[in-house]
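Inputs:
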Amino acid sequence: QGKFTLLRDTRTDGSFLVHHFLSFYLRAGCKVCFVALLQSFSHYNIVAQKLGVSLTAAKERGQLVFLEGLASCLDMLFGEEEEEQAGQPRPLRFISESTSDLRALFDFVRTSLAPAAGDAWPGRVLLLDDLGVLLSLGASPVAVLDFVHYCRVAVCCRLQGNVVVLAHGGEDSEDEENELVVTSLCHHSDLILWAEGLATGFCKDVHGQLKIIRRASLQPGGEQDVLQTYQYKIQDKNVTFFARGLSAAVL
Amino acid sequence: LLLCCGNSYRCLSNQKQNPTILVSTEEDKYGVYSNLLFKYFLAEGVVCGHDLFVASAKELPTNILKELPAPLLDDNYRNELGEEATAVKSEDFQDSMKIAWRYQNLPKVEVSPTTSARFGHYYDVSKTMSSELLQSIKCHSFFLPEELSLQPTIKMCNMNCGYARLLQSIQKIIYQEGFDGSHPQKKQKNILRIGVQSLGAMLWGDDICSTDNPEDTHSLTKFLYVLRGLLRKSLSACIITVPAHLIQNKAIMERVTNLSDVVVGLESFIGSERETNPLYKDYHGLIHVHQIPRLNSLICDVSDTKDLAFRLKRKLFTIERLHLPPDLSDTVSRSSKQDLAESAKLLSSGCGAMAIGKKHLDF
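Outputs:
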């Protein structure tokens, strides 16, 4: 509880981790605020169904608050004038306005996860996919880091909830702003799940390698970080993990 | 959509619910082949009866449409590919291998997929599509110089004016023609195929292609994000070509890749040292697949091969697996093998959706 998890990927797509955490926390009975910036609701819903969870049902019973970034942006740009005056929240306001801070987005997160009367969900989780989109839309790296910091305070400290964030980026990346954000987040994360493409290139049976870094060094006691490495293969409804070199195709 | 491309593009046909794909094509240096692919995309739309939306800042959309390749009728197509197909089949008898016997049980490498794996239609590049066929579908066009002179400038997201105007135009068509589900009583569902030529080029008013420190690095990515939203919300597919080789700031191309569903880079051999490299003598260029869609699923449909090359024959544009010919020259020696290995190193840049390797294993 109260943990910040960073999902990162290099030379591969780590979004399978997002699907995993989404269904995991919903099944665990937590209230989840999912800021989905890159894909539509139906995409996550279809995959979640394969993993045994219905996002539509979760939304209806109030367990899932889903911000579909693409739709929200469209509403903001092409929506009717009356909606604006009705005080509808515009979490992605920073795209169209000159203020580059993500305050509106943070307000959205805070109100979604605020404790409410008659709330049946003990845990609180903020899930975000993915951080790089905010930079592409004009937010400065500092604004993004500020936003993440505010979310941490609100969710991890005050609500004892968890925050899980996905950020792409690799060593050969030329996107300096992105690297800045990712590196900074690495230092502050309690847990890092790092999906990487294999150094030897594409392989049909081993899709990549997952490094799990538990930042024990951040805790009192000052122990060393614990690093575990697994390889994985993604299937239609599942992801199988195995120790390095022990893929079923090889044995 | 594309011909002879095998597995990678078959997944596009499975999008029965919502074909909402954003395809970004990195143009080859002179735009020759990317223009061709652009026209293929539009031509396929005509043959399938889709509506078209063509946007360009440099060429009149009506002129682009006049140059679409003519579809190949079934018997013509079989004749065209007939010679190659029969050549492969004649070697069908089981020839047992003596030295490389480990490879005996591997399937024969298929250079291009057989007719059973056909996807989409085929086109004859030497002929243009008839105007009757073109008139059978609805075409919307957007020519930037005309649009800018018509209306006063609009403000949208601090975005470049040309992009903002294009987004407005696309949104209007999607809404008016009911591609987003509005006006359900209007007519049966159809798909809108959008093609945007040379996005990011100077003619669009963006300076990312002319300077290392552009005034606004976010216009293009903001445009793509909104476009992505429009596509997801409607029955449409879009191809954009981008002169990536001109964009100095490589971070922009990385962001463009992340915002697209499919990213294909075309590298033509025109004017490069590879033109005379014997490795590539049969081909006109390479195809780099940087991203493939992973929609509605944990997995994506990755093909076995990452090395694709293309060639433009008199009538057909084909994409094939790039395979190294055996080195049977008189000068076979260690040094020539080094050259081959160097060239081979450049081959497997891999695909971002699965894994890209840094080191090249020398076998």
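Remarks. The domain at 4-77+91-202 of chain A is CATH 3.40.50.300 (Rossmann fold). Strands of chain A lie at 4-10, 30-36, 64-68, 123-129, 162-168, 191-196, 208-214, 226-234, 239-242.
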